[in-house]
Amino acid sequence: MQHADGYVRSEIEQGIATIEFYHPASNSLPAAILEDLAKTINDIGIDENVRVIVLKSHGERAFCAGASFDELMAIKNEAEGKKFFSGFAHVINAMRKCHKLIIGRIQGKAVGGGVGLAAAVDYAIASEEASIKLSELAVGIGPFVVGPAVERKVGVSCFSQLAIDATGWRSAEWAKKHGLYAEVHKNLEDLDQAVKHLAERLAHSSPEAMSQLKKIFWHGTEHWDTVLADRAAISGKLVLSSFTRNAINQFKAKAN
User: 4: which DSSP letter?
Assistant: First the structure.
């Protein structure tokens, strides 16, 4: 699915489905990209030709910069705010409910919603450049929607550290130590080889066994449809504050 700015693409080869997303602003996630990601994951999740999914972003630098600042600034009321942040909820829930195991290729920095994506895959393989930051509190919001996915992987203590220190980066090794990443590799060549080898092994594994394993991995998250929708409403209200508007404008001014 191609957009004026960015795309979501998928291909299936020998039982391996690769889903790639792209946006020129460091692979950030506007509403259209989020919608397409959720739909693509849902569709591929029930495709009998697929045994395993690889989720990746385009390029060799940032994995995902999180929410689109331009779209955040365009939100005019709480309903629009909830709708936008529900896009992240829909992607995380699509990954959670998907019958296939999802491998994440995390080649570079992940911020906010990007950390949420990395947390929602079943097995994240990263490069040494893949440091992470939950920056939401710095702009007056908070990692409400992605929080359950991150907390599930790293625990309450580490999630709270990330959420509170909203301007501080944590290294890829930190993320591996605390369970967000399964593997960290020195360069992109090693990263891609690791993703390829694992995907090929899983493509020859029992689909039913992997599906049942996934149910076990995500046991206890059955209420997330409601939880993440409620969290989206919180973010959708906070994004309208003057604090958030001023903070985003300051971030954009620094970027320019």
Answer: S
